[in-house]
Design brief:
The chain has helices at residues 4-16, 20-28, 32-39, 47-57. By secondary structure, it is mainly alpha-helical. The protein is globular. 17% of the residues are buried. The mean pLDDT is 94.
Amino acid sequence: GLSKGAKALESVAIAKGRGGWSRIAEELGCAQSAVSRWANGKSRPEIDWVNRIHKLYGVDPALWSVPSTD
């Protein structure tokens, strides 16, 4: 299932509007496929990415361990 971190990253993508996911991948410097896997709960970002996502978008690193309730 999705973590609250994935949901928070999705909110960032939505706020960026069209092409939000590819912009996130570009800003993070990683593959869009990786960002997609994090967003849909197929995988969790490694700690370096978690920290980078926190630095760029303010997503609390702890949220990646918390299941989303919705």
